[in-house]
Amino acid sequence: MITTVAKSQQELVTARTPGHGMHGALFGRQDIFDSDVDIFFTRHWILVGVTADIPEPGDVSTIDIGKSSIILVRDDDEQVQAFRNVCRHRGARLKQAGKSTVGMLVCPYHQWTYDLDGSLKHAAHMGKDFDPTCKSLTRVHTKVVGTHVFVCLGDQPPEDIAYLEQTMAPRLAPYNLTYSKIAYEAEIIEDGNWKLVIENNRECYHCSATHPELTASFLPEDFGFCAEGLSEESLQALDEYEERNAAAKRSWERDGFICDAVEHLDTDAVTQFRTQRLVIAGNGESQTLDTRVACTRLFGDLTRRDLGDVHLWTHNSWTHVMSDHAVISYIIPLAPDKTLVRTKWLVHADAIEGVDYDIEKLTEVWKATNQQDANLVAITHSGTQDPGYSPGPFSAFTESYVDQFSRWYAARLAAQGV
C-alpha cells in the first residue's frame, strides 16, 4: 500500500513558486485553519469593531473569534474596555455574541456580577476569606485608533501597533470619527478561506469586469496597469491621470490633509497595514454611484467635500473614509471555507436619515461590491480545492500586493516557529 504523508504548513508555504499563488491545501485544511486562527487572529492585532458600536456607558458588543470570545464595553468614564467573555468563577459565557446595554455584567450561571471596569462586585456564598479583587475579568489588549477598535488576544501584543497609530491618528483627526454613528451594518458569510478574502481585497485586476458600482468612483489607472504597448491616446490618458492626482495632492496638502502612501507590509512588519489618500473619479466627492456625497452633514467640522478616499488595509480589514461617510469592513474566520465579513457605514453622529442622507445611496456601492466579492471568493476557493488546481502566476502590474501578502504570511509563520 502506498501512503502519502501530508506536508506541513511550513513545507507548503516554502514550496510556493515566487510570484505565484499558494498551494490549495493552505486554503482547505482544518489543521492549517486552526493554526491561522491561533497565529493571525490571536497573536496579532485585529480589528473587531468601531467606537460607535458602544456609544454610551453600559453599551456592550460581544465578538466571537475561534474558540475565544471578547466583550467590548463602554465604561462609566466613557472609555472603551475589552475583556475575555469568561466568568472568573467556572467559565460560563457572560454574554452571547451581539450588542446589548447593561448596568453591570452579570454571569447567567451563578450571578457573579462585574462592574463595567471588569472588577468583581458581587459573588454570593463565597465566605469571608474570599478576595474579589483577585477575580476581575481578564483584560484584553486594546488600542483605539480614530474609531477603529483593535484588540490582541495574545500575551505579548506586537509593539508596532504604535506605528499604525502614529500614522493614522493625524490622517483621521480632521474627520473626528469618534463622533460618528453607524447608519447601517451588514454581514456576509463568504464561502472561502480568509486568506482568499484578503487576497481578493488586495487587487483590482478583477474590478473593471465585476464591480460596475465601485468603479464609478475609482480612477481606472488606480487598478494597476501594464504600460507596454499602450496607444498614444492611452498614454495621454495616463499623463492626465498623473496630473489630476498631482493637482489633488497639492490642493489637499495646502489645506493640511495628509496624502502620501505609507506601506508597512513587508516581511519585517508584524502589524501589517497600508494607507493612502486616493482621488475619487467623476465629481470627486464620495464612493457613490454619482460620485457626490451621500450625506450632506460632513464629518467633524469639514467644509470640503472633495477630500478623496483615505483608505486603510490591515490583514483582517479594509477602510474607506470620505468627507461624508466611512465604510469599515473586517473579517473573522469561521472555518477553512467560511469567512464572516462584517461592514459598517458611519456618518456624522448628528446626521439625520431622510434629511441628511438616504440609506440606499449611502450603501448601494459597497453592498453590491461585497456581494460580488463574495461570489468571486466562493468560486476561487472551490477551484483551489480541485485536484486539477495548480497555482498560477500573479500579474506584476495588478497583483503585486497579493504576492506581497503571500510573502508576509510565510514570514509570520516562520517567526512563530511554524
How do you describe this structure in short?
This protein is an alpha+beta fold and 418 residues long.
Which key terms come to mind for this protein?
alpha+beta, Aromatic ring-hydroxylating dioxygenase subunit alpha, Rieske_2Fe-2S, Rieske Iron-sulfur Protein, Naphthalene 1,2-dioxygenase Alpha Subunit, Chain A, domain 1, 7-stranded antiparallel sheet, iron, 10 helices, 4-stranded antiparallel sheet, 27% helix, 418 residues, 2 domains
Secondary structure topology:
Blueprint: H1 9-14, H2 25-28, H3 30-40, E1 46-50, E2 59-65, E3 68-74, E4 80-84, E5 98-101, E6 105-106, E7 113-114, E8 120-122, E9 141-145, E10 148-152, H4 161-172, E11 180-190, H5 194-201, H6 207-210, H7 212-215, H8 232-254, E12 262-264, E13 273-278, E14 309-314, E15 317-321, E16 326-335, E17 338-348, H9 359-384, H10 400-415
Antiparallel strand pairs: 1-10, 2-3, 2-5, 3-4, 6-7, 7-8, 9-10, 11-17, 12-13, 13-14, 14-15, 15-16, 16-17
Helix pairs in contact: 5-9
